[in-house]
Amino acid sequence: MDEQTRLELEAAAWRKLVSHLQKRTDVQNIDLMNLAGFCRNCMAKWYRGAATEQGLTLDYEQARELIYGMPYSEWKQLYQKEASSEQIAQFNNITPEQQTH
């Protein structure tokens, strides 16, 4: 596979992941962190980092809006639920090596 095709496939997979998470508002960020070691906010940081590497200016809130599909404050108000004590305890047991952000 040539480099351009690989990049296009990776970009398509990324867009599908972002779209999927925008639709799955029932999936909380803490659930993602506890299961996979990353969340939507991590993805926004990665997106911002990639923009910076390309010499582009993209602040964190702009990146989060691209990932969430709306301003983060709006998403939080509409969909974010209070984390349970069990979720918080599980999160606190995640080691830095298990986190990808």
SSE layout:
Layout: H1 3-23, H2 29-36, H3 40-53, H4 60-68, H5 72-79, H6 85-92
Helix pairs in contact: 2-6, 3-4
What would you say this structure looks like, in words?
Helix 2 (about 30-35) runs parallel beside helix 6 and helix 3 (about 40-55) crosses helix 4. The mean pLDDT is about 95. The chain starts with a helix and ends in a 9-residue tail after the last helix. It has helices at about 5-25, 30-35, 40-55, 60-70, 70-80, 85-90. Helix content is about 65%, strand content about 0%. The protein contains six helices and no strands. The protein has about 100 residues and is mainly α. It is globular, with a radius of gyration of 15 Å.
Q: Keywords, please?
A:
globular
Average pLDDT reading: 94
The major β-sheet equals: none
Shape: globular
Q: How much is the radius of gyration in Å?
A: 15 Å
Short characterization:
This protein is an all-alpha fold and about 100 residues long. It is about 65% helix and about 0% strand.
